[in-house]
Specification:
Blueprint: E1 9-12, H1 18-29, E2 33-38, H2 41-55, E3 59-63, H3 69-83, E4 88-91, H4 106-134, E5 137-142, H5 155-175, E6 180-187, H6 193-205, H7 210-220, H8 229-240, E7 251-254
Parallel strand pairs: 1-2, 1-4, 2-3, 4-5, 5-6, 6-7
Helix pairs in contact: 1-2, 1-8, 3-4, 4-5, 6-7
The structure holds NADP nicotinamide-adenine-dinucleotide phosphate.
NADP nicotinamide-adenine-dinucleotide phosphate binds near residues 15, 18, 37, 66 and 195.
């Protein structure tokens, strides 16, 4: 299936590794030119070079902390200047801290909100005028299954992510007539560095090895295994494609059947 992304420009946030990098790779494989960012210069440059050499597509790295408003402005301006426009936005960021109602400080809540919610607000707001001008756009936000089924130890994430689903739904109806779709992807447990860190800390709390905890975790997932980053990348690329032009305001759970509610 040709996704029709050869002449498209994508902006993928937080893409030096993990789900952002997998999304950038999937879009680049389909022929899109991709602007990628993360906070660490060496890592984002290395990721861009790796994706370029694997796909032949143009991949433009930029150093940007997506929890910082002026960094976002500099990045979007840079990408729009380099490529002339932006067709696809993939909102993504690092995971907010774990913790409980008694352990999380006001500062952590505020920083978590800047990182998880305001990065999506600011990036989306910055690219929508370009998408409106060309009457074509795709806004895809990587959220989390906890937006649907909260987890106690991911209190901050479980509190903020549902707001992203609400914003997605509201924007989708506002921008549908302009050729712009707005959707979210909610990963379950996907094996990335973030997930590895979570696995380690949960294993330590339960006094078992990481491998033992991983086996336990996999047993709880109907698919019997954790997900692979490229399984998120494929869904992002499909939602960005011409084929998904009539899909807007939806949340795609990519969790191996983990979440039990009817979504
Ligand atoms: N993996 C999962 O199972 C899973 C499940 C549900 C939801 N999620 C969510 O999906 C998102 C990505 O997770 P992941 O597993 O891919 O994480 P990851 O493997 O830790 O990768 C995080 C990426 O984000 C970048 N990053 C972190 N903070 C940033 C910031 N402030 N500004 C710009 N870039 C930043 C990192 O690069 P630098 O360090 O260079 O900035 C890195 O490239 C997170 O929000 C996570 O909570 C993940």
């Amino acid at each position: 299936m040709d996704f029709g992304l050869q002449n498209k420009v994508a902006l993928v946030a937080a893409a030096s590794e993990g789900l952002g990098k997998a999304s950038a790779l999937a879009l680049a494989k389909e022929g899109a030119a991709v602007a990628v960012c993360s906070r660490r210069e060496q890592e984002i440059r290395a990721a861009a070079a790796e994706i370029h050499s694997a796909t032949g597509s143009t991949v433009h790295p930029f150093v940007c902390d997506v929890s910082n408003a002026s960094d976002i402005k500099r990045w979007v301006d840079d990408a729009a200047q380099k490529f002339g426009t932006i067709h696809i936005l993939v909102n993504n960021a690092g995971g907010p801290p774990t913790g409980s109602i008694s352990s999380l400080t006001d500062e952590q809540w505020e920083a978590g909100f800047e990182l998880t919610m305001m990065s999506v607000v600011r990036l989306t707001r910055a690219v929508l005028p370009l998408m409106e001008q060309q009457r074509w756009g795709r806004v895809i936000t990587i959220a989390s299954f906890v937006a649907k089924e909260p987890l106690n130890e991911l209190l901050l994430s479980s509190s903020i992510r549902p707001g992203i689903l609400g914003m997605t739904k509201a924007l989708s109806s506002q921008y549908a007539s302009k050729g712009i779709t707005v959707n979210t992807v909610c990963p379950g447990y996907i094996l990335t560095k973030r997930q590895d860190e979570l696995l380690r800390s949960r294993a330590a709390q339960q006094n078992v090895s990481k491998e033992e905890y991983l086996r336990e975790q996999a047993r709880l997932i109907p698919a019997g295994r954790l997900g692979r980053p490229e399984e998120i990348g494929s869904v992002v690329a499909f939602l960005a494609s011409e084929h998904a032009g009539y899909i807007s305001g939806v949340n795609v759970m990519v969790d191996g059947g983990l979440a039990k509610a009817i979504h």
